[in-house]
């Protein structure tokens, strides 16, 4: 491969990572939060976990 091809691949990789980071932070994570907040809590899962005890 010549230098221009390697440079092009590096630039493409950098742009792809930046776009993926943007999509993840501003689209996917808020979507998951909205879905979780709109779903009703399942009592079976809430009751199966023991209450947390704080040590003083």
From TrEMBL:
GO biological process terms, semicolon-separated: protein import into mitochondrial matrix
One Pfam family cited in the UniProt record for this chain: Tom7
InterPro entries, per the entry: Tom7
Keyword Transmembrane helix included in the entry's annotation: yes
Recorded family membership: Belongs to the Tom7 family.
UniProt membrane topology term: Single-pass membrane protein
One GO location term (cellular component): mitochondrial outer membrane translocase complex
Full protein name: Uncharacterized protein
Transmembrane segments: 21-39
Keyword annotations of the record: Membrane, Mitochondrion, Mitochondrion outer membrane, Protein transport, Transmembrane, Transmembrane helix, Transport
């Amino acid at each position: 491969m010549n230098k221009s091809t390697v440079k092009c691949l590096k630039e493409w990789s950098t742009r792809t990572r930046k776009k993926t980071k943007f999509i993840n932070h501003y689209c996917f994570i808020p979507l998951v939060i909205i879905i979780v907040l709109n779903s009703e809590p399942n009592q079976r899962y809430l009751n199966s976990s023991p209450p947390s005890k704080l040590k003083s």
